[in-house]
Amino acid sequence: MIQRLSSYFLRTLRDNPADAEVASHRLLVRAGYIRRQAPGVFAWLPIGLRVKRRVEEIVREEMTRAGAQEMIFPGLLPAEFYTATGRLDDYGDGMFRLTDRKDVEMALAPTHEEAFTLAVKDLLSSYKDLPVTIYQIQDKYRDEARPRAGILRGREFTMKDAYSFDWTPEGLDASYQTQRDAYERIFKRLGLEYVIVAADSGAMGGSKSEEFLHPTPIGEDTFVRTADGSYAANVEAFVSSPAEPKDASGVPAPSSFDTPGAATIAAIVEQAGVPASQTLKNVVLALVDHEGNRELIVVALEGDREVDMKRLEVAFQPREVEPATAEDFAKHPELVRGFIGPWKDGAQFLGTEGTTGIPFYLDARIGEGSAWVTGVNEADKHVRDLVYPRDFTADGRVEAAEVRSGDQAPNGAGPITTERGTEIAHVFQLGQRYAEALGCKVLDPNGKQVTVTMGSYGIGVTRNLALIAEQNHDERGLIWPEEIAPFDVHIIATGKGAVPFEVGESLAKQAEAAGLEVLFDDRPKESPGVKFGDAELIGIPWIIIAGKTAADGVVELWNRRTNERTSVAIDEAIARLTEARAVTLVVTTD
Amino acid sequence: MIQRLSSYFLRTLRDNPADAEVASHRLLVRAGYIRRQAPGVFAWLPIGLRVKRRVEEIVREEMTRAGAQEMIFPGLLPAEFYTATGRLDDYGDGMFRLTDRKDVEMALAPTHEEAFTLAVKDLLSSYKDLPVTIYQIQDKYRDEARPRAGILRGREFTMKDAYSFDWTPEGLDASYQTQRDAYERIFKRLGLEYVIVAADSGAMGGSKSEEFLHPTPIGEDTFVRTADGSYAANVEAFVSSPAEPKDASGVPAPSSFDTPGAATIAAIVEQAGVPASQTLKNVVLALVDHEGNRELIVVALEGDREVDMKRLEVAFQPREVEPATAEDFAKHPELVRGFIGPWKDGAQFLGTEGTTGIPFYLDARIGEGSAWVTGVNEADKHVRDLVYPRDFTADGRVEAAEVRSGDQAPNGAGPITTERGTEIAHVFQLGQRYAEALGCKVLDPNGKQVTVTMGSYGIGVTRNLALIAEQNHDERGLIWPEEIAPFDVHIIATGKGAVPFEVGESLAKQAEAAGLEVLFDDRPKESPGVKFGDAELIGIPWIIIAGKTAADGVVELWNRRTNERTSVAIDEAIARLTEARAVTLVVTTD
């Protein structure tokens, strides 16, 4: 089909939107693809909807190939769907909620595990009905605290969410692998670089979970990987290795010493003459449940590392972890800020078995036999030669410390590096958590009721589109990969007289006849500069210019990505375009 | 493609859903197309989504043909979008509302006039940018007080809503006509009978409005039309003709008479010896605004007619009309229930100029010079020979009385008949109401700012699908028209041994190769009776049975609509099917 720019509901904008932090946001708005309606809520203008549809179509094709069946659930669901699984509380403010005119509580679904599980419970009854994988491509709602970066992290977004149902763990493994394979095909077709990392399964629950991350400096996630590619994990899922055990038999008994005013690691390092890595930092934190109840804990880690709150929250979810407040400290005068430690006067001080009874956790990196300089719960004093576990113990181990490049991978493959990335898909083995809570069972071959086992598999359609824009642009605008470009060719008629416009019209019709989708810039009064600038901003991969030379039978074929312009005879233009496309258009069909 | 029933997420149900009042609801649920999630909120199962997509595709094709451009807005919008136009109040409880985590008021959009207007305001600036018609196919939300009849009147539903923008009234007329023509093509392709009726423009505001109604006894709307087809109107938009003026010079002066206990029209008729049509019924009503303020009014109409509250509400919108309550009456002891009238003791009693000051309206049917028997505001008394307007007047005329078959059409085309129907589309000339409220202006050719003029055009996708099911079923199940059937052919393999299944498989592949979408019932253990019953319930228009005779090279071609079964050679089956489809598949391409 031919879309004429003279009547298209598309306006390019000269200025960047004031709140745009990233290139995809700037360019998608300026090139007329999206318009903001509210924080994190966007409308898709006609050309934007075309790109979105193409991404959806690739996802749909690969889901079909993976044997998944498409259906669709409403975005508005009764809140009670989420109560049996506890997710109404887990999501907290992240879920949009409302009451209807009859005061029934409703929710805008952030994800649909419960609804799909209930549908399967409703319709299927036998192991013979399984496996089944069903999915939808649907608008989701999450009331993000900090919607940002345009459609990269919106409050409304389009997602493909699939759910597999099996009755054996082996079945779940197979369904999971099928979806995982489909995702790899999708990202290859979208041309999006990805790394599959072990992930924390978070609010979803379940046993096994992997994230597809797109490595990008604007990513919100940190992941780690080894040089040999044998290990990759989201930083929240990274498992630290404890330091090698040491023989502490030669370490003297702990001895206190004066450290006037040394309430920071730096000051202790100076006064005690040891490196920060040999000081034990004791951080007071509060665990907060969804009703706001606070429990104080202390976490100890090497003095040269900071606590990574996101990693720590994994250990204590669904409770959130917050720094202790002045109010928290006021209730515990025994905690002398800057001088806290697990030990005092020869006895355990922190921990449920200690004097204070405050739960005390040790970072997973701390090794047996390690000797520490740390606080002794008295102002202006520290202790040295405090050996774990000779002199103090803990209520448990947690992954608390920040992860650093150079830390050891848990699989023995050597040091990891840390990188930034954005989650582009997530696959979960949910196991029986949802099916158990909602009573989704089938009869097994022996006629016995068994709870089904589930997986859930999500791809953010709109987020992926934004990342494709991030990965495919230059300072002048977008450069769409051919498989998801909104149009196949952008024909520009420009210059004096009727000839360029007649030639443009004729080429548009020829291109249409060749099965191409054509954007035809037939605007009568815009200058060549404006038209070329718009074409670069909009980012259709191929441009044909019918300009001054059109009267001589020549037009220009312009490759947006390489910026190469070739003069071609009008009669050959569409054939040349088709050839060039055949070279650059890579369709994955393995 | 081939979808095998053995692995399809589709289960037919034997029992009707308990709350199903209409055939489409019963059959779409039983045949596995939809499942209820909440009152008026449904999920679309895989086969249901296929039909929904086909309806959407027809709508989309005709929108494209009409030059409309597709885009999409979020379902979740800031409530403030609706405040400038007053619709937040107009919709009242009908709009789902919520507040986000930052206490910003949000709404689930019942319709998107404001959002589209703001987008045009945002992007366009000149008369040269117009006309433009933009549309979306989108899930809408309305908190209906009485969701019913499955997807016929849901709280979440899919709608195509288009909006035209012009800068002259003639432009609006043309855009309106283009959409109206597109709608006619859509309904012809969907095979849905329709009547275009003049309509009240309701909460939308605006100057001209027509509804497409589908005549059906289960319809919620009443419409009228003349036998010659020259006039048709929604009953709310019907304009009554006042009775011919009469010469009342010979009518004696009004005289009161005793009517002991005659507080009903029937009793007055008996005691006064006049037909009910010559008594004047005075109905006390309350107008209620969205803040709950009540104003009492009295409406007078012929005694043999009832007040049609929906018609009356058109006159007083956005206020709602309610019957007066005992409490209302308690505040007005001057109103003697059963004996109310406009006149008392020779003077105007009701009306802002009357003794009571209570606004008094006269039904539009009341003619000049008509003489009435009516109450005289005193218990057990009435008056006769009370002549309008000789003896009493009113504050205004309203369309209050129910419309009856036999009433005169306002265009002089004679009597109308009343029928039931369901709204399947609505076209509005909104004029400048929204553009004015939201400041949507463009520069005209003289460089002057002019407010744009708009139309809005809606088709309920899911409602139309339900009506197609209503119109296309029998006692055994659905019978889809070919253009929107979820599959083109339903192939059943049944019987002993492998042959029928091999033949079915081979035919399914041949049909797929011929470009048909195939549902293949390959279930190994279901009986022929179950398979045939499911096929009839599901309603694919063509069925091929590979059964007992398959071993002899013969299968049956079954027309679901006519119930005709023809034996055909296996080798010819797909060719015969294709021929038969060519006859029955009517594609409108005018």
Question: Which helices and strands, and how do they pair?
Answer:
The structure is a homodimer of 590-residue chains.
Chain A: E1 2-4, H1 23-30, E2 34-38, E3 41-44, H2 46-65, E4 69-70, E5 76-78, H3 87-91, E6 97-99, E7 105-108, H4 113-123, E8 132-141, E9 156-166, H5 169-190, E10 195-198, E11 208-215, E12 221-226, E13 232-234, E14 255-258, H6 265-272, E15 280-288, E16 294-302, H7 309-316, E17 320-323, H8 326-330, E18 343-344, E19 347-348, E20 360-363, E21 371-375, E22 381-387, E23 396-398, E24 416-431, H9 433-438, E25 441-443, E26 449-451, E27 453-460, H10 461-471, E28 473-474, E29 477-478, E30 489-493, H11 499-513, E31 518-521, H12 528-538, E32 542-546, E33 554-559, E34 565-569, H13 570-584
Parallel strand pairs in A: 1-31, 4-8, 16-20, 20-23, 30-31, 30-32
Antiparallel strand pairs in A: 2-3, 5-7, 6-7, 8-9, 9-27, 10-11, 11-24, 12-13, 12-24, 14-22, 15-16, 15-17, 18-19, 21-22, 24-27, 25-26, 28-29, 32-33, 33-34
Summarize the structure.
Chains A, B: Pfam families: HGTP_anticodon, tRNA-synt_2b, tRNA_edit. The structure is a homodimer of 590-residue chains. Chain A is α+β, with helices and mostly antiparallel strands.
Walk me through the structure.
2 copies of one chain form a homodimer. By secondary structure, chain A is an alpha+beta fold. Chain A has 3 domains: 54-75 and 110-238 and 418-470, Bira Bifunctional Protein, Domain 2 (BirA Bifunctional Protein, domain 2); 255-398, Alpha-Beta Complex (YbaK protein), CATH 3.90.960; 479-584, Anticodon-binding domain (Rossmann fold, 3-Layer(aba) Sandwich), CATH 3.40.50. Helices cover 25% and strands 29% of the residues of chain A. Chain A contains 13 helices and 34 strands. In chain A, the strands form 9 sheets. In chain A, strands 4, 8, 9, 10, 11, 12, 13, 24 and 27 form a 9-stranded mixed sheet that branches. A 6-stranded mixed sheet of chain A has the order 1-31-30-32-33-34, with helices on both faces. In chain A, helix 1 (23-30) crosses helix 10 (461-471), helix 2 packs antiparallel against helix 5 (169-190) and helix 2 (46-65) crosses helix 10. Chain A starts with a strand and ends in a 6-residue tail after the last helix. The model of chain A is unreliable at 586-590 (pLDDT under 50).
